[in-house]
Every structure is written in structure tokens, then in C-alpha cells.
Amino acid sequence: MAKYYDVHPDNPQPRTIGQVANSIREGALVVYPTDSCFALGCRLGSRDGMERIRAIRHLDDRHHFTLVCRDFAQLGQFVYVDKDVFRAIKASTPGSYTFILPATREVPRKLLNPKKKTVGVRIPDHVVAQALLAELGEPLLSSTLLLPGEEEPMTQGWEIKERLDHVVDAVIDSGDCGTVPTTVIDFSGGVPEIVRRGAGDTSRFE
Predict the structure, then answer these.
(1) What is the enzyme's class at the highest EC level (predicted)?
(2) Apex CA 52: angle with CA 50 and CA 55, to 5°?
(3) pTM, to two decimals
């Protein structure tokens, strides 16, 4: 059974956030809120967590996982960002964007796009997600919580707890989340390519 954590949306309880972070370090797969949708998250090096996300969402090997980072300094450890790209991404973070960029050696090979050697990264603009990332001290390996055959993600933590009780280890609920996933921008070719139009404004990349 998944543990259910009711977290204040503006002032997350440090003790609760600490408990969740400890469980992630020990290999837990959690559902947590972001500034776009609820997401599935586990520790970066957790092969078991990654496979469980694939199983829940029915994903194939080509799916781009996302490294959800606390800030730009952390993001820079895992992807290569040149000067022009830096300015564009810096102006858009934190926010509802996922950026696809060439990965550094810090990223496990299993997470990379097999042809391009890229990975998705994002910095969420969400108090609870930021508190969890700060406590964890490393990125979360994440994927939007969109179940197979469904057009929109679930928006309520209690519903997620009921539906996924036996396949995740914890659900963090800080209120309803949205149904629109992040906007995905691919910078791996040097110029922005809009892969998916979502919650983030695309005008600056067009």
C-alpha cells in the first residue's frame, strides 16, 4: 500500500518532506505534484524505479525520461548548455518546460535517447516539488503521470492513491494539479524545435 502524505501547498511540512526524500533514497517510487501535472518520480540511479514507471505507463525504450532539477546549477551537471541556449532556458525557468539537451557523463546510459544521447531536463515552479528536490539534493527521474488509454492525467491525490495503491510507494498531495503537461523544446540540434505544445508559452521559441 502506498503511503499518503497531505502536504501544505505553500508551506510544506519539513518533517514530511524529509520522510518522502528518505524513502526515495531507499528506492521508493513516488507520485508528486508539479506546476503542470502530477508526476511519477524516483532516484536517478534507480533501475527498478525506471522499470516500474515504464510498466505503469506502458512505455517503450524510446521514451524520454526527464531529470527534474532544483535549479540551473544542478541542471548544468547533467546536460551540455551552450551560451545561446543558456539564455533561452534561463529566461524560461523555473516553469512548465522540458528541454531536450545533450547529456553529460553524469546521466546513466539507460536514460539516454539511444541515437542522440540526449535527455530531458526541467526546473519546476512548484513549492512542494522544489522543497522535495532541495531535501533530496539530487534530481528526480520523472515522467508525467498519464495512464495508458487516458487522454488527461489525474488531478487529485486521493484518486491517484486509490488507483495506484499497489504500484507506487507514496503519494504527495498538496491540492489539485493541472491536466496540461509541460511544453517540450528540443535544443539538441542547437536551435529550438517545439516537440510538444503544453503548459509553457512557446512564443519565445518560434
Answers:
(1) transferase
(2) 115
(3) 0.95
